[in-house]
Every structure is written in structure tokens, then in C-alpha cells.
Write a structure and sequence with these properties.
Oligomer: single chain
Order of helices and strands: HHHHEEEHEHEEHEHEEE
CATH architecture of the largest domain: 3-Layer(aba) Sandwich
Mean pLDDT: 85
CATH superfamily of the largest domain: Chorismate lyase-like
Structural class: alpha+beta
Radius of gyration: 22 Å
CATH class of the largest domain: Alpha Beta
Number of strands: 10
Distance between the termini: 50 Å
Length: 251
């Protein structure tokens, strides 16, 4: 931490104003510590208890300040661990189809993955129909959590047409992503993105290490090869750690 309890108390009082609510002063204090370089990217913030003891405020006030800072992307909160200065958000092109591992490494960060499931199964009729398979045909199903410098940035839930991905179930998706493998065996011909904001389920909160109140960015991606739908993926990102961006030309 860049300040001890006495420093925090002094800085908090310097921000005192009769018109400024206590929680806003806490937010201003944290933001000033970050913009001033005292707390750097990924540094741990004092705990809620430390803030309470240092500033003499209620835990409710401290919690509100930290929740709002997290919602604004200034800090990130990890359940059961604490609060940290947010790292610059990873970003992806709004239209292009990219490999998450390449995105992470292009930013100079460490990429890791954890495979939650990789199996053949009977999917919902809607999935089977979209993939152009007869009712009752099994499909390949994978779930992978992708990490950037140890923080989860994407929960991938993917269904694959087995006719176009031989060997899918034998792959080690901690060493290459499903996207990379599919690009080799079924080269991408067309892609579709549907983007929306969503609230994660309790299970998704645990897998992404986010608070239940944190909004997430959901990308539903379908990819075709040789005019056949090969893959349907649901890609869930913590809103505080990821963004989509793009440019356009009006000429």
C-alpha cells in the first residue's frame, strides 16, 4: 500500500467538504492515490476493515465507495481476497473474430486457461438444430476459463459440430484455445457476434471471481466454415476487465 492508516486519515480530511458525502470522499481518496501513482495497477488496496479503522467510517460507507469504484472500472474486487487497482482493460475488436490468447499476449501479459469440461453430449434441441444435426445427434461441448495475468477475463461455453472437428475431444485446451484448433480443422469463413450486457449467475460469479452485482459483457458468437455452422460459443467477460472497441470510416 502507498499510505499507512495515518496517511489515509489525513488525506481523507483534506478532501472534507460539507457538501461532499463521506462515501464520495473515500472514492476521491482512492482515485487520488491511484492517479498519483501511490497505488499502481494490481496493487492491493487496504481491506474494508482497515479503511473503517483508519477513517472512522461505517463499513456500509466503505463498501458503497468500493462497489462504485469497481463498477466504474477503477478497481477490481475479488471475492474472499480483497480489492485491487484495476489493470488497463483488455479489448477486442467489435467485429473481428479473435483468439483470446493472442489478445492477452499482444498486451504483453501472461495467458493461462482452465478446462472445466470437454465431452460429447446430447445438447438442447435448439443447439442441435442450429448446428444442422439430426435430433438426438451428440455434439462436442467445452467450457474453458481464460486468464490474463491470473485474473479471469473470459468464460467460454462452446458447442461444436463433431463432423467438422475430428479430434476435438483429444485436445489440451490449456495449451491451445478451442478457437485455434477449430481455425486449423475448419477454417473460418464467416462469423456472427451478438453483444449484450448481462448479470452473471452465482456459478459464473465464482468462476470469474466477480461480485454478484458486477455487470458482465456477453458475446454470443457463431462461426461458419464452408457455409456450414461449425461452432456456437457463449463468451462471458467481467465488465471491469474487458471492453469491445472498433473504428469506422464515414467516407
Amino acid at each position: 500500500m502507498g499510505a499507512d492508516a495515518a496517511d489515509l486519515a489525513r488525506l481523507y480530511e483534506e478532501l472534507a467538504s460539507g457538501a461532499t458525502p463521506a462515501y464520495q470522499r473515500v472514492k476521491d481518496l482512492v482515485s487520488a492515490q491511484i492517479t498519483g501513482g501511490h497505488w499502481r495497477e494490481d496493487d492491493a488496496l487496504p481491506s474494508e476493515s482497515q479503511f473503517v479503522d483508519a477513517l472512522g467510517l461505517s463499513r456500509m460507507t466503505i463498501n458503497r465507495a468500493l462497489r462504485e469504484l469497481a463498477a466504474q472500472g477503477v478497481i477490481r474486487r475479488v471475492m474472499g481476497v480483497g480489492s485491487f487497482v484495476a489493470v488497463s482493460k483488455g479489448s477486442s475488436g467489435l467485429v473481428e473474430v479473435h483468439n483470446i490468447a493472442d489478445e492477452v499476449r499482444a498486451r504483453g501479459h501472461r495467458y493461462d486457461a482452465r478446462v472445466l469440461c470437454l465431452r460429447e453430449e446430447h445438447a438442447a434441441p435448439k443447439i442441435t438444430a442450429q448446428l444442422g444435426l439430426a435430433a438426438g445427434r451428440p455434439v462436442f461441448h467445452s467450457q474453458v476459463v481464460h486468464f490474463e495475468d491470473g485474473a479471469a477475463v473470459q468464460l467460454e461455453d462452446r458447442y461444436v459440430n463433431p463432423d467438422f472437428a475430428p479430434g476435438y475431444l483429444e485436445q489440451d485446451f490449456t495449451r491451445q484455445t478451442p478457437f485455434t484448433f477449430l481455425s486449423k480443422v475448419a477454417p473460418l469463413g464467416r462469423g456472427e457476434h451478438i453483444v449484450e450486457a448481462t448479470v452473471p449467475s452465482p456459478e459464473e460469479c465464482a468462476l470469474l471471481a466477480v461480485e454478484p452485482s458486477e455487470p458482465c459483457l456477453l458475446i454470443q458468437r457463431r462461426t461458419w466454415s464452408r457455409d456450414v455452422l461449425v461452432s456456437i460459443a457463449r463468451l462471458l467477460h467481467p465488465g471491469s476487465r474487458y471492453r469491445l472497441e472498433g473504428t469506422f470510416d464515414t467516407h
